[in-house]
Amino acid sequence: MTAIQLYGVSKTYRAYEGAWHTLWEMVSKTRMHREWIALHPLDLDISQGQVVGIVGTNGAGKSTLLKLVAGMLMPSSGTLAVHGRVAALLELGTGFHQEMSGRDNIYLGASVMGIPKAQVDSLYGEIVAFSGLEDFIEQPVRTYSSGMAIRLAFAVATAVDPDILILDETLSVGDGFFAKKSFDRIIRYKEAGKTILFCSHSMYQIEAICNRVIWLNHGQVVMDGDPARVVSSYEDFLKKLERPEDIVGSGTVSPSGQEPRLKRVEVSVDGRIGKELTARSGLSDLTVTVEFLFNPHLAVPSVALTITDFNGWAVASASSHNDHLVLEPAEEGRCEVQVQFPRLPLLKGHYWLNVFLLCDQALHLYDSAERVAAVLVEQEGIEKGLVSLAREWRVCGESYYPQARELPAHPLVTGRQLG
Amino acid sequence: MIGTNCSQCPSLSRTGRRLFELSVAGFLGPWRVLYREHELISLLVRRDLLTRTSGTLLGWGWTFAQPALQVLAFWFLFEFVLRVKVPGKVAFLDYFLTAIIPWLFVNETLLKSLSVMDDYSAVYRRTVFPLKVLPLLPGLVTGALYLPIYVLLVAVLEGFPAIGKAALIFLVLWAGVMPAAYLLAIAGSFVKDLRQVFPFLLNLIFFLTPIIYLPEMLPAEVRQLLVFNPFADLIVAIHGLLYNTPVTLGNVLRPVLWWMLLLAPSWVLFHRAEPHLRELL
Prior knowledge:
Chain A is an alpha+beta fold and 419 residues long.
C-alpha cells in the first residue's frame, strides 16, 4: 500500500527585493520576483512500512522534499498524496512557542497535528516521562536548551502514533540516554510497519536504519534504491568534493562532552604503542585498545573501527555489534576492549585508524576518535592493491598456500558472544 | 450600444458571481476556522491571557480588573473632575463609557492583528500550523478582556436584561473587524512601517469618532464628514441599541457596506499570502 505519492512535484522558491514587492505581487498579480528551483519535477512512490533515507549535500533539496510531504510547503507543480497521519520534526526547530510552558506546548503541538484534547490528556504523562522533563515542564520553553526542546518535540511527535514519521537531522541531538531512547522508538516504529522519512548527514545512521535511500543533488534524484549501493555512490561523490586540507588528521580523541565517551584509544603494532607506527604486511599484529566510560543505567555501548587510506577511503572495518559481541564492563560505567588484527593483510601504504563508540544497537554515534593513529605498512614483494587476499594455488593437484596463517587460538577481544 | 452592453453581460455577471462567492467565503471562512480549530484557538487564547498576568498576585483577576480600572478612571475624570454635562436624555458618562469600551476593543484588535503573524512565526514555519487561525486571536483575546466589563457596565447602567445587547454588540464588532484583521495581519507581515504609522491613524479615527463628544456638538459642515467614518456610524448604532436614540438607515448600511467590501479581498489576499508567509525569510 502506498503511503506517499508524488507526481511531477516541484518546488520553486521566490526571491523578492523587499517585502513591499511581495505584497504588491499578491495584490496585483504582477510578477515581482526571481525564482530558483529547489526541487525539479519529481515522481516518487513510497510504500507503507518503508524507511526512506534522504541524502545529499546542503541545498540538494532534502528539507524541501520533507517539508512538502509534511504539508508545510505547497508544491509549485505536480500532485502530492499522503495517506495517513504525519508527524514531522524538521530543521532542528521544534515549532514550539517560546513563551509557553512545556505543558502548553505539548497541547499546542498535538493540536496542530489534529489530536483531540481528550487524547492528549491521556498521553500527557507518557509524553512528559519520555522527554524526561518532569521537573521543567511548567517552565517556558525559552528557558530550555536546544536538547531539551528537541526531546520534548520528539516525545510529542512520536507519542501520537503517526503513520508517517518525518525526521530531519534531529536524531543526534540530546544526550546519549535520550538518543538511545529515541532510536529505540524509531526502530519500534520501523518494526511496526510505519513509514519513516529520514534525512541525515550520517551515512552510518542512514545505512543502519533505512531500507531505501534517495540521493538528491541540486533538486534532482541522482539515485534511488538499496541503501548500501546508494550510500556507497554518494560517499564516492563526497570524496571527489573533498579538498586535501579537509583530511588532515588530528590524531586525538574528540571530546563530545556527553556520556558515554571514549577515554583512551591506544594503537600498537607488534607491541609498540604510538600514533605513527610502521607495520610489515602479512607479518605484524595490529592491536587497538579502547577504553570508554558510559552510564551504567544504559546498555553497554558497542565499539567500531575503520581503517582508511590517506584519501579517506574505507579499506576495512570491524564492529563489536556486527561481530555479535556484547561488551562487558571492567567495572561499573567503565569498559576496556581490545581487538587485534593478526598478520595484518594490508599491502604497502599509509593508513589511518578511526575508532567509534556507538549505542548497543550500533545506530547512534556517541563519540569518535578519528585518525587516531597513522600506520605505515611496508611489504616484501610487488603485490599490488590494498589488501592481500588469502589464496590457494593448485598445480598438478598439489595445493600451495603462499600466506599460510596461524590464527590465534582465541580472539583478542573481551566480551560475550551473542547466541 | 445596447448590443455592446449585452455582450459584456455574461462576463460582468461572472465577475459579480465570483465576487459574491468570495464574499461569502470571506464571511464564512473565519467562522469555519473557529469551529474546526476551536481546541487550538482556545488553548492559544487562554495562553495569551495567562501570559499577560503571569507572575502577578491577582493572576487571572487582572484580565477583569485592568479594564475595570480603566472604566473607574474615566468615571472619576468625567463625573468628578470635568463634570461634563450634555443636553439629551443620556448622561455623558453613560454615553462615553458605552462607546469607549467597544472602541478600545476595536483599537486593540486591529493593532494586535498587525503583529500576530510575527508573534507566531517560530511555530508556523516549522509545523503544519493552520495560519488562518492567527488573525482570529487578537479579536478573541481582546474580546475576552473587554466583554465581561462591558456586560457588567451595561447591566449597571441599563439593567440586567440589557446584557444580551452588550453581548450582541461585541459579537457584531468581532465579526465586523475580522476582514480588517486578516488584511492587517498580511500587511503587518510585509510592511513593518505600518506598525509605526497605524497607531497614529487609529488615534486620528478616534478623534473623528463621536466618543468623547456628541455628534451634535460638531459644526454642521464637519458633522457631514462623519458619513465617511464607519466607526462614527457604529457608535450611533450602539447608542441606538442601548438607549433608543435615533439611528438612521445610513448608520447601519454604511458600516455594513465597508465590511462587505473588505470580505472578499481579505480572504483572497490571506489565502494568497499563506505560502509567502511560510517561506518568508
